[in-house]
Structures are given as C-alpha cells and as structure tokens.
What we know:
Layout: H1 3-8, H2 14-19, E1 25-29, E2 37-40, E3 45-49, H3 54-70, H4 78-93, H5 97-106, H6 111-118, H7 122-130, H8 134-144
Parallel strand pairs: 1-3
Antiparallel strand pairs: 2-3
This protein binds zinc ion.
Zinc ion binds at residues 63, 67, 82, 85.
Amino acid sequence: xxxxxxxxxxxxxxxxxxxxxxxxxxxWAELPEGVMGRTCxxxxxxxxxLGLSQAERRCTIAHETAHIVRGPVAPHQTLRExxxxxxxxxxxxxxxxxxxxxxxxxxxxxxxTAADALWVDHYLLSVRLRTLTAAERTLASTxxxxxxx
Length: 149
Ligand SMILES: [Zn+2]
C-alpha cells in the first residue's frame, strides 16, 4: 500500500474542501507546543503550525475546517466540541475499516507506520481505532484481535 495510490482513490480531499471556503484565509505561524492548528471565527482565519508533517497538515486542515463548518461554541462546550470533531474527522479521513485493518496488519500493529500508510497522523488513527462502532469493531477484530483490546 502506497500513500499516493491511497490518495488517488480517497473520496475526501481536506485541502480542496478548505479551498471551497473562499472567505477564509490560511496562515502559517509558530504555535504553542502541542497546538497544530487554530481557527478564529472573528477574523475568518485558520492558522497552521509551522513544522508539521504532510499527514499532520492534512489532518489539521480537516479538523479546522470542521470548526468552520460547525461554527463557534461557548467555552464550556469546547472539550466536547474537540472530541466530536476528532471523531468525525477520523471517520472522514479513514472511512474504510477494511483499509484500516489492512494498514494495521501491514504495519504489524505499529500505529505510526499504519498511519503513514493511511496518510493520516497517528493521533487521528488512534482516535479512529478508539471510536470504532460495535459493528466496525466486530469486523476489525476478526483480523486484529488483541491489537484492539
Ligand atoms: Zn479543535
């Protein structure tokens, strides 16, 4: 499995989706440690951290685009919103459980290697694995078994 082949057949294009939001701007800047991106609804600006890998940039622009689409939330709703966006973006960028399983088997269970193969970062893949539906978990467990528990 090679990322380019995977990308060619992938239904969601985060950068294309962001580009459709023509009244929003993208800037690059140093952000605090551990922060990969920010969305400011007031200035309609997404800021991505310098120094991200290609997969991190791809996952982060998808995440920030979800903030744009869903709109601002009250401070007390921030944590829940982040979790909801993480879940939905993980599903958006890794829609296929058979492909996820193929990548995990091919990578011998190594999360970062599987994430590379799926063209996402390891955080997004870990979210996708943690938030499999019961049906997806059943499908995946026949081949992954212990790696999922
Ligand atoms: Zn966020």
